Amino acid sequence: MRNKLPVKGIFLDRDGTIIEDRGHLKSIEDVHFYPDTFESLRALQKEFILFIVTNQSGVSKGIIKKEDADRINSFINSRLLEKGIKIAEIYTCYHQKSDNCECIKPKSFFPKIAAAEFGISLQESWSAGDHLHDVDFGYNFGGRGVYLLTGHGAKHFEELKNSEEKLYFKSSPFKNLKDASSYILQESKNIPKEYITAQTAAEIIRDGGIVGIPTETVYGLASDALNETAVLKIFEAKKRPHFDPLIVHGSSIDNLRPLIKEFPKKAELLAKKFWPGPLTLVLPRTSIVPDIVTAGLETVAVRVPSHPVARKIIELSGLNVAAPSANPFGEISPTCASHVLSQLGDKIDGIVDGGKASVGIESTIIGCVNNEYVLLRPGGISREDIEEITGKLLINDNSELITAPGTMKRHYSPNTNMILQNHTDPLPEDFQDYKKVGRLTYGSTFYNDCEIELNLSPAGDLKDAAVNLYHYMRKLDKMNLELIIADRVPQSGLGAGINDRLSRAASRD
Ligand code: TXA
Ligand code: MG
């Protein structure tokens, strides 16, 4: 039965959005719904599954107790139920910013859980609230966000004026939830027919099909790793050469053990420290792994992803899942579902929309054979963090034992001609010959000498730069430019992975 279609979600802020903001609420007497809350939510729930996502920093600050926050949540929930409104889940973050938790808005922790648990298609989903972080939240999970002038909205409106790139300038702010709801209902398109739930994806994988799945690094094109015919379909859909082996994804170390002949001690320490997460280990393999997966090598690349939807799909399938990035060979890797749809939509059996990838570049690959530890591809975990466990890593080119066959010089490439430079370099000699030039910059650099400049992170944050990298390369590539000039980012931490992708994208070999 494959009739379970994905659904759209709306992630609503609580205080200042569906009830009045009266500070850190302690008692149910303080709960006052806005006059338009019930009718707005009733209209929305015809199209969307409703969620409340609330930051209750008062708990961490010691102003209110967790039980108080929870009691108010369940009171709101039952009042809404009386009015015929069903909230699928109330997600509460009890921390404050300085706690550095994963669940605080605008981080997309809760929507990704919702995508895994309720089959929510995040790109078709929305956030709404009276604070800038409520709007950013929507864009961060890969959907859209609307800004309300209720609650503290009017007061915080000034903050919005700085975020130029955001779509919400066109649509927001709304004076109340009712106006926002009608806008959302009008805007929200049907879900593309290619989008499927995690459940359906797991069934397709079990049946030998191939599906696009979200991971925290980039979207993957997944099949049953031990089914040769299924794996072959991946190579065909991607037009990938057979000498380029695939990464096998598992739900845990133990789930991957049957594929691994020998798990060197430090490799196991790496797995324990960084899994689930953006690290791939190349290890000696057992004979159950088909040759097509490893391109005939005696090793297999394995990884446990952290994206809740990826985990759900792997768990529901009960299999190990082979998954290269879900793009045609050599092209830019996909970091949201619509990228997969446009690049491979007609060649695969479905796509699970798990929102925007939170890391944005592929996993770091470490070869672990005969006590050698080799950095085969820089990526989402920094070399520095890995070397804390392994000691100094060898690099790809100077290991005799292991190489990563798929790491071609030219890769991750836009169609537009691209060059890579340091931001202090002089202009290319023939700069004047190009009529339309775009720049991809980083940090405080601003050139003001070309058609468009996209800055990977004006604040100089490499994590943000990684998240934006492929998105911005795509954007520039669509602009019919004659040349893209990209600046190298600092080489430390995630910078090594970003520079690696930039130099491959710029390579002509
Ligand atoms: O973040 C990622 O790793 C993403 C997501 C989907 O998990 N996957 C990914 O896969 O980037 P792909 O196929 O684009 O890159 C996998 C690379 C291969 O090109 C190859 O260089 C290396 O992993 N690899 C795989 N198996 C190997 C092996 N046995 N020995 C050496 N390198 C291997
Ligand atoms: Mg609020």
What does this structure look like?
Helix 4 (109-118) runs parallel beside helix 14 (308-317). The protein is globular, with a radius of gyration of 24 Å. It has helices at 37-44, 57-60, 66-82, 109-118, 132-141, 153-160, 168-171, 177-187, 198-206, 228-238, 253-256, 265-274, 291-294, 308-317, 337-344, 383-390, 462-477, 495-506; strands at 8-12, 48-55, 87-93, 126-129, 144-147, 211-213, 220-224, 247-249, 279-284, 299-303, 321-322, 364-369, 372-377, 394-395, 418-421, 437-441, 452-455, 483-487. 32% of the residues lie in helices and 17% in strands. Strand 12 (364-369) and strand 13 form a beta hairpin. It is an alpha/beta fold. The protein has 18 helices and 18 strands. The structure holds threonylcarbamoyladenylate and magnesium ion.
